Amino acid sequence: MDAAPLPAREWWEVSRPMTEGLSPGCDHTTGCITCGDEAIRMRVIRIDAERELALCATEDAAERSTVEIALVQPVSEGDRLLVHAGTAIAHAGREMAG
Predict the structure, then answer these.
(1) What's 68's domain CATH number?
(2) Cβ neighbours of residue 47 under 8 Å, at least 6 residues apart?
(3) What is the pLDDT of residue 5?
């Protein structure tokens, strides 16, 4: 026989002791997982259009990383992107030719 589901309030009371202390807190002075991280400005070097990935480099070219670009299409070589956790989240401007 299946047990009847608990109402939301009762579920919270039962589950809270099991998860207390496991979730990260939000402390804006030290940062947190969801809101304290910052995006990194990177330049697109090469694009793999089929897989929606780009090889990107930091502004000082000290680091290179593969970045998912599906959320910010269209993307061209030379574009500047804001990258967070390996995913481009916005365009930061295009490099001017000339």
Answers:
(1) 2.30.30.140
(2) 53, 54, 55, 69, 75, 76, 77
(3) 60
Tokens linked to 13: 């009371």
Backbone φ, ψ for residue 79 (5° rounding): -60, 150
Whether 82 is in a domain gets the answer yes
Q: Report the first-to-last Cα separation within the chain, whole angstroms.
A: 74
Amino acid at 49: A
HEC-encoded secondary structure of 21-89: CCCCCCECCCECCCCCCCCEEEEEEEEECCCCEEEEEECCCCCEEEEECHHHCCCCCCEEEEEECCEEE
Q: What is the mean pLDDT of the chain?
A: 76
Greater confidence, 51 or 93? 51
The pLDDT of residue 57? 97
Residues 54 and 87 sit within 8 Å (Cβ to Cβ)? no
Residue 39's CB is within 10 A of a number of other CB atoms, namely 15
